[in-house]
């Protein structure tokens, strides 16, 4: 297949170069499915490194978000992200609210289809907010370890289409998530276990990788 | 069977708020989804004052919603932060364009959820935060930890900021006033018996007969020390002398003293503690210019009390004295 085919309308309201509301909705629905299917996996990681409620928290938040996605404005991605944000913001714990913040800042992005520059700007703002309010930096074994490299890829992207850019971001997020195996946690519940949880991947970072990877099929 | 007076654990907070709203229908409104409490009659053209936190500390914070104090209170589940979604909805409901000051007790979950709500409204609302961290027992030398907990000084902050907001003081000054009250306050608590977990009916910790916990917080956690129970006067003196030192009080200073019941301490006991608080301070030439004695910041049914001292200035006295009309505080 050539680039020309990639750029054509896939019949879902996306034109390939820019992310529309319909595209964001498909992306987020794929993410919901990935998390719901993998909730036990996240819970297992969290049980080894934290208190074991992460998988359940995030998948029940996203199930609420799935219902909300049905009625969104398909013209731009902001409302789709906002809908998922609200679902996360209604959850307890630490990771749920921080995902709510991340998607909430994305949901404050432009109300027109997003090209690569808009995507970079929106993720830049969102990830900066999570770093600041979560008081976490790269290397602390948190969701930020996947968010930051993915966001850097999006901000510096030379790709012409949002799919190419997000696909590169997904590789960076995955590498970031893998890097948390071997880190000693400084934030969150895993920090109480220190060295004992060193080899376990951070479930928040894994969820971020899943998020970017979920755009593949859109 | 739980010895907690409730129907089901799941409906405890919701039913309590329904009952609270019905009992004070002239003063407050409960908004069910997302859950928050506002004044019955919204006041516009002033800074909005909002607080919140886990339930189980009643009358804090919902009991302080009303004229001269809070515009909104956001309750979480028992000893659990409210969600950012609740806080955001409450700010949107009460901010009338003059901005919102949030009074937040220093707990990780509360700080995170209130800060996230403020951040998500940053493009449309001016939101300022007063962090209350008055509990001396959790003071640490290093600054790596979460810092001191927020306890009963929050009542002084809400009263004084509420009066200032009511008087039309602008947002930055209401915030600074709140921060000044925090900086001039310290609290210490003791407990003779832990609180009951509503779900299990069990106490959060057990003490041997004749023992007490010194330096307890308001979430059923143990204190920093287990001590032998002595006479009330000795106990109060040991609390007050540490507070005097922490606040940096000197001869002829004037203070607000809050002698606060933690849930299961009788008014007779609190009055005995208040008596000795005054005697100890008198002995050092410090004047209790204002005082508040009663269960205001509770920890479910914990048997114990806390003492808070706030160094007063003339303007703080003026705002403390200003009229207030809420379910839990009226003058």
Largest interface: A-B, 17 and 17 residues
Major pleated sheet of chain B: 6 strands, mixed
Q: Name the CATH superfamily assignment of chain A.
A: DhaL domain
How large a portion of the residues of chain B is in β-strands, by DSSP E? 15-25%
Number of domains of chain A: 1
Radius of gyration of chain A: 16 Å
Tell me, rounded to a whole number, the average pLDDT of chain B: 96
CATH superfamily of the largest domain in chain B: Dihydroxyacetone kinase, domain 1
CATH fold title of the largest domain in chain B? Rossmann fold
Annotated CATH topology of chain A? Serine Threonine Protein Phosphatase 5, Tetratricopeptide repeat
Q: How far apart are the first and last residues' alpha carbons of chain B, in Å? A: 41 Å
**Whole-Å distance between the termini of chain A?**
16 Å
Average pLDDT rating of chain A: 87
**CATH class designation of the largest domain in chain B:** Alpha Beta
The assembly state of the depicted protein chains is heterodimer
Q: Mind telling me which CATH architecture of chain A this is? A: Alpha Horseshoe
CATH architecture of the largest domain in chain B: 3-Layer(aba) Sandwich
- How many beta strands in the DSSP annotation of chain B? 12
What would you note in describing this structure?
The complex is a heterodimer of chains A (218) and B (331). By secondary structure, chain A is mainly α. Chain A has a single domain (18-213), classed as Alpha Horseshoe (Serine Threonine Protein Phosphatase 5, Tetratricopeptide repeat). Helix content of chain A is 61%, strand content 0%. Chain A has nine helices and no strands. In chain A, helix 4 packs antiparallel against helix 5, helix 6 runs antiparallel to helix 7 (144-155) and helix 8 (162-179) packs antiparallel against helix 9 (203-213). The longest helix of chain A is centred in the N-terminal third of the chain and has 29 residues, at 21-49. The radius of gyration of chain A is 16 Å and the shape is globular. Chain A starts with a helix and ends in a 5-residue tail after the last helix. The model of chain A is unreliable at 1-14 (pLDDT under 50). Chain B is α/β, with parallel strands linked by helices and 331 residues long. Chain B folds into two domains: 10-182, Rossmann fold, CATH 3.40.50.10440; 185-311, Dihydroxyacetone kinase, domain 2 (Hypothetical Protein Tm841, Chain: A,domain 3). Helix content of chain B is 31%, strand content 24%. Chain B has helices spanning 12-23, 84-94, 108-120, 153-166, 171-183, 232-247, 267-283, 314-321; strands at residues 28-32, 35-39, 48-55, 72-78, 100-105, 127-132, 185-193, 211-214, 225-228, 254-261, 287-294, 303-311. In chain B, helix 3 links the parallel strand 5 and strand 6 (127-132). In chain B, helix 2 crosses helix 3, helix 4 (153-166) packs antiparallel against helix 5 (171-183) and helix 4 packs across helix 8. The longest helix of chain B has 17 residues, at 267-283. Chain B is globular and about 55 Å long. Chain B starts with 11 loop residues before the first helix and ends in a 10-residue tail after the last helix. The model of chain B has no long low-confidence stretch (mean pLDDT 96). Chain A binds chain B through residues 85-86, 89-92, 94, 97-98, 100-101, 104-105, 108, 129, 133-134, and chain B through 34, 80-81, 83-85, 88, 108-109, 112-113, 115-117, 119-120, 123.
């Amino acid at each position: 297949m050539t680039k020309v085919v990639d750029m054509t309308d896939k019949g879902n309201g996306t034109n390939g170069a820019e992310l529309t509301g319909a595209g964001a909705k498909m992306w987020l629905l794929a993410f919901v499915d990935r998390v719901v299917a993998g909730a036990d996996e996240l819970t297992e990681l969290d049980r080894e490194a934290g208190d074991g409620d992460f998988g359940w928290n995030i998948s029940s938040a996203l199930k609420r978000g799935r219902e909300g996605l049905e009625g969104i404005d398909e013209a731009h991605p902001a409302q789709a992200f906002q809908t998922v944000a609200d679902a996360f913001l209604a959850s307890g714990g630490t990771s749920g609210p921080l995902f709510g913040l991340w998607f909430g800042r994305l949901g404050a992005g432009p109300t027109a289809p997003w090209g690569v520059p808009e995507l970079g700007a929106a993720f830049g703002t969102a990830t900066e907010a999570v770093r600041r309010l979560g008081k976490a930096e790269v290397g602390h074994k948190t969701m930020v370890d996947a968010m930051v490299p993915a966001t850097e890829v999006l901000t510096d992207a030379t790709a012409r289409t949002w799919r190419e850019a997000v696909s590169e971001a997904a590789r960076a997020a995955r590498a970031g998530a893998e890097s948390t195996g071997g880190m000693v946690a400084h934030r969150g519940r895993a920090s109480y276990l220190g060295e004992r949880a060193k080899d376990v991947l951070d479930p928040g970072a894994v969820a971020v990788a899943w998020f970017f990877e979920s755009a593949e099929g859109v | 069977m739980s010895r907690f007076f409730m129907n089901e654990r799941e409906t405890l907070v919701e039913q309590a708020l329904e009952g609270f709203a019905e009992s004070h229908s002239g003063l407050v409104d409960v908004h069910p989804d997302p859950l928050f409490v506002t004044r019955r009659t919204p006041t516009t053209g002033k800074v909005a004052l909002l607080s919140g936190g886990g339930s189980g500390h009643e009358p804090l914070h919902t009991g302080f919603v009303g004229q001269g104090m809070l515009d909104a209170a956001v309750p979480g589940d028992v000893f659990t932060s409210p969600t950012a979604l609740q806080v955001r909805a409450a700010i949107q409901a009460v901010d009338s364009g003059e901005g919102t000051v949030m009074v937040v007790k220093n707990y990780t979950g509360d700080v995170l959820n209130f800060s996230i709500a403020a951040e998500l409204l940053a493009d449309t609302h001016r939101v300022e935060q007063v962090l209350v961290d008055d509990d001396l027992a959790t003071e640490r030398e290093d600054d790596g930890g979460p810092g001191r907990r927020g306890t009963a000084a929050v009542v002084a902050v809400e009263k004084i900021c509420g009066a200032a907001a009511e008087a039309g003081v602008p947002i930055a000054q209401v915030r600074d006033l709140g921060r000044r009250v925090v900086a001039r306050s310290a609290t210490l608590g003791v407990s003779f018996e832990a609180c009951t977990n509503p779900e299990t009916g069990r106490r959060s910790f057990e003490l041997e007969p004749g023992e007490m916990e010194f330096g307890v917080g308001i979430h059923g956690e143990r204190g920093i020390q287990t001590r032998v129970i002595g006479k009330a006067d000795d106990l109060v003196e040991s609390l007050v002398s540490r507070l005097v030192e922490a606040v940096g009080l000197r001869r002829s200073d004037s203070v607000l003293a809050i002698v606060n019941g933690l849930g299961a301490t009788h008014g007779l006991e609190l009055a005995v503690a208040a008596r000795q608080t005054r005697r100890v301070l008198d002995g050092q030439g410090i004047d209790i210019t204002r005082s508040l004695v009663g269960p205001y910041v509770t920890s479910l049914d914990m048997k114990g009390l806390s003492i808070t001292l706030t160094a007063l200035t003339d303007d703080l006295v003026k705002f403390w004295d200003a009229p207030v009309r809420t379910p839990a505080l009226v003058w």
